[in-house]
Amino acid sequence: MSEDRYLTFALGKGRLADKTLALLEQIGITCEEMRDKKSRKLIFVNEEKKLKFFLSKGPDVPTYVEYGAADIGVVGKDTILEENRRAYEVLDLGFGQCRMCVCGPAPARELLLHHERIRVATKYPVIAKDYFYNKKHQTVDIIKLNGSVELGPIVGLSDVIVDIVETGSTLKENGLEVLEEICPLSARMIVNQVSMQMETERIRSLIFQLKQLRETSQ
Ligand code: PRP
Prior knowledge:
By secondary structure, the protein is an alpha/beta fold.
């Protein structure tokens, strides 16, 4: 559609946003304003290319994209699964690779084998519920935590946890291990369903360039 319309990107704050901006830079999309780390500004504009970028909390990215406040979002697959918003997932950006796993102390493995009613602590209750109820057909009690989930089994709050494992060092340092793997995770690009129709050309071209970049850097 018209080049006058801004394409708006919602980026999850932190490492994911930094990596996304570095990737966009490689295909000639830059945003000088965003380089100033001290800035408290929330929205940044590239006038020349008619692009806008804003940073938000990761779990809010799919919300902005579903409602069309952002045309495009970049967020972890964990957040996409947990938030379960309407949007097209168009590209695996290849960074931020990790795994969603059921973890716990080694003896907890038995509890998973025998489908016992166990307590599961997690920051991801939707993913945990789907895994235990729909895939394993195991009834469990899910306890929502907001971080440092590894504490769950250590302090006796839960039998196991469902959490992200990247290097595995948090588990190791706390005497826990991966008991079952739920799914692989990485950063994904998501697109608003209407924007995909209205701005097909610009969005397709962006996806194409990012795909090419990924292929040449593999
Ligand atoms: C994440 C995750 C694990 C840890 C895994 O936590 O929840 O705790 O990283 O990484 P590792 O396998 O490389 O050790 P995060 O640092 O995001 O903080 P949180 O525990 O407060 O969620």
